Amino acid sequence: GATIGILGGGQLGRMLSVAAARLGYRCHVYDPGTNPPAGDVCAQVTSAPWEDEAALRAFAASVDVITFEFENVPTATLDLLEAARPIRPDRRALAVSQDRLTEKQFLRDLGLTTAPFAPVSDADTLEQAVAQIGTPAILKTRRMGYDGKGQARIMAAEDAPAALAAMAGADAILEGFVNFSLEVSVIAARGLDGRVAAYDPGENLHEDGILRQTTVPARLTGSQRADAVLLAGRILNALEYVGVLGVELFVTPQGLVVNEIAPRVHNSGHWTQNGCVVDQFEQHIRAITGLPLGDGGRHADVIMENLIGNDMDRVPELLGARDVALHLYGKPERREGRKMGHVNRIVAQG
Ligand code: ATP
Ligand code: MG
Ligand code: MG
């Protein structure tokens, strides 16, 4: 069988490796950290910095196709790898999603709705942005933010200096606050042949900026559900995307607002592991290796709950619970805010 190279060895890389193994593939993970969670389950791990050209060349030479679980791989690293092996999804998807400003412009150009936004690089541009967008608003770093990190709320104009200071000099984007009734996400895939498959949208609950829980089915009307899936398809087709994509949406009375896209398997798609015959990890491996996509149909109603930090104390109880599938990431140290695992609770047959 072929070997799949995965950039990033966190829990997503780990679950991708397991899915790849089930289809008879080997995985080689490249991660700058030592002992990444994916290392336990894949055939080969390279622990080297993103700048190590020799290590990158050796990695590329050992694999047939490259994918990633981490969208912030530096551009120079991607240039070097791309010259040797196909990267799927490709550079366009990465370029669009590495920078919140590029991302929002791309979505808007596609005719989709986003929060109002304006670029911010200093006190003057922030003042203009606040005047244009109003408050409440959220200032976010353009790059590298995740789990709500690199964000500051601006409830009134006088909060602006503190919010700017929180960006620590990084380029930022000011977003108008969206008054949503619900947050949902669509996990969808596009194959090498251009076919698209989408999972049922999940309803997401965040706590302190971190995903806490995803429930399927989401509380959406039929037309909202169709809108959500169709807009994900538009994004996939516009990017000629290959692989699994996560699209985070706000549901408002005026329609769906796109928050952000993730060019990879997504935490809010973990429910598919126990709610679908072909889960998002297998779907991604199928897509990038040119296999036909799985159907994406759902056979159960599921609540996925993340196990964060001290939630790990609940593991013994969860092991004894009926209809609960436990997924642990094998991370040695628990830390506050650190995702240690998740559970999928089957609540009804779909
Ligand atoms: P992720 O871990 O999902 O990548 P992130 O750090 O990229 O997170 P966002 O998804 O932009 O952060 O924001 C985290 C959460 O904050 C959102 O899911 C939503 O609940 C809230 N939020 C973000 N932007 C807005 C907005 N413009 N209006 C209202 N709420 C928002
Ligand atoms: Mg994000
Ligand atoms: Mg998000």
TrEMBL record:
**Known EC number:** 6.3.4.18
Question: InterPro entries in the record, alphabetically?
Answer: ATP-grasp, ATP-grasp_carboxylate-amine, ATP_grasp_subdomain_1, PreATP-grasp_dom_sf, PurK, PurK_C, PurT/PurK_preATP-grasp, Rudment_hybrid_motif
Catalysed reaction equations from the record:
5-amino-1-(5-phospho-beta-D-ribosyl)imidazole + hydrogencarbonate + ATP = 5-carboxyamino-1-(5-phospho-D-ribosyl)imidazole + ADP + phosphate + 2 H(+)
Q: Kindly give the Pfam families that the UniProt entry links to this protein.
A: ATP-grasp, PurK_C, RS_preATP-grasp-like
Positions binding ATP in this chain are 100, 140, 145-151, 175-178, 183, 206, 259-260
A Gene Ontology molecular function term of the record: 5-(carboxyamino)imidazole ribonucleotide synthase activity
Pathway named in the protein's UniProt entry: Purine metabolism; IMP biosynthesis via de novo pathway; 5-amino-1-(5-phospho-D-ribosyl)imidazole-4-carboxylate from 5-amino-1-(5-phospho-D-ribosyl)imidazole (N5-CAIR route): step 1/2
Q: Which Gene3D superfamilies match?
A: 3.40.50.20, ATP-grasp fold, A domain (3.30.1490.20), ATP-grasp fold, B domain (3.30.470.20)
Q: Top enzyme class of this protein?
A: ligase
Q: What's the stated role of this polypeptide?
A: Catalyzes the ATP-dependent conversion of 5-aminoimidazole ribonucleotide (AIR) and HCO(3)- to N5-carboxyaminoimidazole ribonucleotide (N5-CAIR).
Describe the subunit structure.
Homodimer.
Task: Tell me the protein's name.
Answer: N5-carboxyaminoimidazole ribonucleotide synthase
